Amino acid sequence: MNDLATAPTSTKVTREQLDDLWPEIDWIERPTLREAVAKTWLLAFERGPLTPEDLKTIPFTLLVANCPTTFMEHKRCVVHIANESAKAMQVFMGNALKIDLDTVIAGAILADVGKLLEYEIKGGKSQQSERGELLRHPFTGVALALECGVPDAVCHIIAAHAAEGDLVKRSTEAFIVHHADFMAYLPFKNPNNLKK
Ligand SMILES: [Fe+2]
Q1: Ligand 1: distance of its center to the CA of 135 in Å?
Q2: What is the H or E stretch that residue 128 is in?
Q3: Is there a contact between 110 and 23 (Cβ–Cβ < 8 Å)?
Q4: Domain that holds residue 54
Q5: Distance 55 CA to ligand 1 centre (A)
Q6: pLDDT recorded at residue 17
Q7: N or C: which end of the chain has fewer CB within 10 A?
C-alpha cells in the first residue's frame, strides 16, 4: 500500500502530459492556485497506480454496471457544467451571492483527484483498493490538495462534493460543483437514458 506521507516524489507524469489531459487547468486565472491544482494532480499520479491513459479508458464510476463513459469524459464534463453554471449565477445572482470562478474551476478539477488513491487496476479492470474502502476519494483528495498548498475554500469543495458533503454547510461554489457532478452522474443510473 502506498504511504501518503512518505511515498517517493519522482516525476511519473510530466506537466505537458497533465496539460494535455486537463486543458481546463489553464482556465484558472490566479497563478498560485493554477500551480497548486497542477501540483496536486501530479502528486496523485506519483502516489497512485493509475496513468493518464487509464483515466481516458476506465469508466468514471464503479456504481454503474458497464458504464460507457470514461473517467476523463465525465470529469471534464463536470468542469464545463460547473464553469457555465457559475457564470450564469454570477450574471443573475451576482448582486446577492459571492461566487469565485477560480474556486469553482479548481474545485471541479480536483473533486475526484483522490480517486487515484481509491482505485486500482486488477485483471484489466478498475476496482476499489484497500485504501479506497477505508478512505473514499473526498478524504484522500483533501489530503493531497492540502499538501500542495490548495486553499481551504477549494479543499471544502473536494470534501463536500459527494454524498459525504450532505452533512456539510456547502459554500455556493461547493453547491455548484456538487450539482454539476451529480447532473453528469445520475442519468446513468436509469438504463432507459442510455443510447442503445
Ligand atoms: Fe467524486
Answers
A1: 12
A2: strand 125-128
A3: no
A4: 15-191
A5: 14
A6: 97
A7: C
Give distance in angstroms: CA of 76 to centre of ligand 1: 13
Residue where the block lists cell 476523463: 72
Task: For residue 3, tell me if it sits in a domain.
Answer: no
143-181 pLDDT, tens digit per residue, is: 999 999 999 999 999 999 999 999 999 999 999 999 999
Tell me what the pLDDT averaged over the chain comes to: 93
183-192, long-range: CB < 8 A, 24+ apart: 183/81, 184/74, 184/77, 184/78, 184/81, 185/60, 185/61, 185/74, 188/61, 188/64, 188/67, 188/69, 189/63, 189/64
Q: How far is the CA of 175 from the centre of ligand 1 (A)?
A: 13
Instruction: Tell me how far the alpha carbon of residue 158 lies from the centroid of ligand 1, in angstroms.
Output: 8
pLDDT digits (tens, 9 = 90+) for 50-99: 999 999 999 998 888 889 999 999 999 999 999 999 999 999 999 999 99
Q: Is residue 134 part of a domain?
A: yes
> Which CATH number covers residue 38?
1.10.3210
pLDDT for residue 11: 64
Number of domains in the chain: 1
CA of 126 to the centre of ligand 1 (A): 15
Mean pLDDT of 132-136: 93
Q: What is the pTM of this model?
A: 0.92
Residue 43 domain flag: yes
Classify residue 59: in a domain, yes or no. Answer: yes
